[in-house]
Amino acid sequence: MEIGVCGQVHDNKQALAEIINKPIAKILFVGGTWTDEGGRPSSIVSKFAKTLEDQDIKVDLYNGGFYNDLENIIELVIYYDYVIWWADVSNDKPKIRDVKSINPRCILITSKRNDNNKYSFAELINRALEVKANLCVIFSKEDPVYTMRVFDPLGNSWFYGFGTA
């Protein structure tokens, strides 16, 4: 035991037990390509998920699959604190991404490909606002350089980086 601020007595073992038993945030990560034929996993999504897991952060990962399965997966968002929704769906299919209507309290992180700057930054912000994302990750490719930018829907950029394949 030790004496804390204002003479309060603290039991270090009890405090540690409270920290250890505190529920850990649940993370759902949906990425990869989703098609009628079964899609395919994304290597970028796999690398991000592995990085989180290497930090002892548990992630429930769905990386590519059948398009129709997304309708069941999106219903799971109600059970998660953080949802990383990076599902790549063909433009000829209806988008399944209205995470915030199912779980308005989750932290939503979305993504968008913006090869050769097809979309302006204002258009990307508008998309983030439409889906009520808390953060958006933009992946761009201008051969041979790949870039990644993380921003919030107010237009604040939190990260910008690049590399080659």
Give a concise summary.
The protein is α/β, with parallel strands linked by helices and 165 residues long.
Can you put this structure into words, describing what you see?
By secondary structure, this protein is of the alpha/beta class. It has 2 domains: 2-105; 107-120 and 137-165, no CATH class. The protein has helices at 12-20, 43-54, 69-74, 99-102, 121-130; strands at 2-3, 9-10, 27-35, 59-66, 82-85, 88-89, 107-113, 135-142, 145-151, 157-164. Strands 3, 4, 5, 6, 7, 8, 9 and 10 form an 8-stranded mixed sheet that branches. It has a two-stranded antiparallel sheet with strand order 1-2. A hairpin with a 5-residue loop joins strand 1 (2-3) and strand 2. The radius of gyration is 19 Å and the shape is globular. The termini are far apart.
Features:
globular; 165 residues; 10 strands; alpha/beta; 35% strand
Distance between the amino and carboxyl termini = 55 Å
Determine the strand fraction and express it as a percent band: 25-35%
How large is the count of helical segments? 5
Low-confidence stretches: 1-9
Give the beta-strand count.
10
**Strand count, sense and closure of the main sheet?**
8 strands, mixed
Structural class: alpha/beta
* Shape estimate: globular
Overall average residue pLDDT: 88
